[in-house]
Design brief:
Elements (H helix, E strand, L loop, with lengths): L13 H20 L12 H16 L5 H20 L38 H9 L1 H8 L1 H13 L3 H5 L6 E3 L5 E7 L4 E7 L2 H17 L26 H14 L21 H12 L4 H8 L4 H5 L6 H12 L3 E2 L13 H10 L3 E2 L2 E3 L2 H5 L17 E3 L4 H20 L5 H7 L3 H19 L3 H33 L3 H4 L3 H10 L17
Antiparallel strand pairs: 1-2, 2-3, 4-7, 5-6, 6-7
Length: 523
């Protein structure tokens, strides 16, 4: 009873139900593994916990439960056994008096959570196109309200209950004329949340508001639901229910099941296309277009970055294809094309994107000893753009341009300084050779792209977005690992201290441009 008020929404009891299901496995083990069937509390001990853990491992090996299920059961039982002591149930006058202290799960008894591989819960692009093309069929079978709810779910990525409970007056405008959706995050008890939406989505909601207003002309607007239910709702103030929408959506998806195919053209299981899949598709769509993870967290309304990163993934196939495509337009520090055929490099580049071992500012380093040392054995520190082992491509253009701008600003500030001697200027000011070479590299990369056909340019741009999205994901993993391992600020743990010292040494008197160090590791 103490746990229930901590959860909200339609599935508020899910956590408590999961705990009860987990306790079943412990109860079964005690009942069948002890002569007293586990009824004598003071006889329980560590051996019963070991028997329980072995029982779960046996069920997993025989395929009766999954690794994920085993993990959930163990953490639920561990929390339950800890809570009954925290709540005082094992005191002398409590209902569980006499329960030994060693009858509890230790940290080592909890199995590791399974790694997440394979497809995510988002819908492939061809599936989304098929659904959009057949929405008129959904409207014919379930009504306009259900169709509009599905369209709002696709466009905004909200939870189904959040879309169903939208009020009539759920639109607002920002000072700069952008549209905002106002909704209630009932799961986290956060009313009046604001989500930026496109003009097309705002027009769709506006059109539906007029339709609802015509159906209920006498109801005050502050009491009117945007999606009112059809039965027993004379004033339009009661919202349509999620079960009704889910049932209508399931019938619609089943009716077009033969049209659903994945990216490879293979049949896609219709059972995966549920209402909540649109939320995963929404965040995956933004991630594929390079939206930073912290922005995705805000768009999803999550409090934890871990939660957001569980909603999307950068598919290995897309990253591999993107690296293959962009690497054909890779250049060295002199602006010379490096690879004509990179078939053998794709696997290595893909691995580098995942672990970041040879990433350097604005590109990659191919010097063998430096690669082996994870980027920490460079004999020519701070001079990547002038090194023969340096490689860069169009995916680093934003960082290259930002660095060039930084060099120009630093040079002008140093030359304009009146309180330093000439030898200080010569030592700290960026050299003309460095600026000219960097400018030449940028110009060479841009010229290479400009000579492509419009179709090839679009294809390269899409590949660049995939690569930059993967690079951001790898960077976030690096930040979390550094923060967990050292307990320090992860942002600086992930950057190279050598590069920071080099930048400060260049000109300690001149303030640097804000965020200039954020381009370490190709971010």
């Amino acid at each position: 009873m103490e746990d229930l008020p901590l959860h909200r929404g339609r599935q508020a009891t899910t956590t408590s139900k999961e705990t009860v299901r987990a306790i079943y496995y412990l109860s079964w083990t005690l009942q069948h593994g002890r002569p007293d069937h586990g009824l004598v509390l003071d006889k329980l001990g560590r051996s019963d916990i070991v028997r329980f853990s072995n029982r779960l491992a046996y069920l997993e090996r025989n395929g009766q439960i999954s690794t994920h299920r085993r993990y959930i059961v163990t953490i639920k039982v561990r929390r339950f056994l800890d809570d009954i002591r925290a709540f005082g149930l094992t005191r002398p006058t409590g209902p569980l008096a006499g329960l030994p202290d060693d009858f509890r799960l230790r940290h080592s008894d909890v199995c590791n959570p399974p790694e997440k591989f394979g497809p995510g819960r988002d819908l492939p692009i061809p599936v989304q196109r098929s659904i959009n093309a057949n929405l008129a069929q959904l409207e014919a079978s379930a009504g306009l309200d259900v169709r509009r709810i599905v369209e709002v779910l696709i466009d905004t990525g909200r939870r189904p209950d959040e879309a169903c409970q939208l009020p009539w007056d759920c639109l607002d405008m920002t000072a700069d004329g952008q549209h905002v959706l106002i909704y209630t995050d009932s799961k986290n008890n956060r009313p009046n949340c604001r989500l930026p939406i496109s003009a097309e989505t705002a027009d769709l909601i506006r059109e539906h508001r007029e339709n609802v207003r015509q159906r209920f002309p006498n109801t005050p607007l502050d009491q009117l639901a945007l999606f009112p239910r059809n039965q027993m709702n004379p004033y339009g103030s009661l919202h349509i229910g999620v079960p009704h929408v889910s049932k209508a959506h399931r019938s619609f998806i089943d009716s077009i099941a033969t049209q659903l195919v994945d990216d490879a053209g293979h049949p896609f299981p219709a059972s995966v296309a549920v209402l909540y899949a649109y939320r995963h598709s929404y965040v995956q769509r933004h991630a594929d277009h390079g939206t930073p993870p912290d922005v995705l967290r805000d768009l999803m309304g999550h409090l934890s970055m871990e939660t957001t990163m569980g909603y999307y993934r950068v598919t290995e196939k897309r990253v591999r294809q993107a690296v293959n495509q962009v690497a054909q337009h890779q250049f060295d520090s002199h602006g010379h094309r490096v690879f004509a055929d990179i078939a053998g490099l794709v696997a290595e580049e893909h691995a580098r994107l995942r672990v970041g071992q040879i990433a350097v500012p604005f590109g990659v380093c191919t010097e063998p000893s430096n690669v082996k040392a994870g980027g920490h054995a460079c004999p020519y520190k701070y001079s990547c753009t002038g090194c023969g082992h340096f490689r860069s491509d169009a995916s680093y253009l934003p960082e290259l341009k930002s660095y060039l701008q930084q060099l120009l600003v630093d040079r002008e500030r140093i030359l304009a300084a009146t309180d330093v001697q000439e030898w200080v200027r010569a030592k700290t000011a960026p050299s003309d050779e460095e600026i000219d070479q960097l400018r030449s590299l940028i110009r060479r990369v841009e010229d290479d792209l400009n000579h492509l056909s419009p179709a090839d340019q679009q294809s390269i741009q899409e590949a660049i977005e995939v690569i930059r999205s993967a690079r951001q994901k790898v960077s976030q993993v690096c930040l979390r690992s550094a923060s967990t391992r050292d307990g320090h600020d992860a942002r600086y743990q992930c950057q190279s201290s050598d590069r920071r010292q080099a930048t400060r040494r260049r000109c300690p008197q001149v303030p640097r441009s804000p965020g200039a160090g954020d381009y370490a590791n190709g971010r």
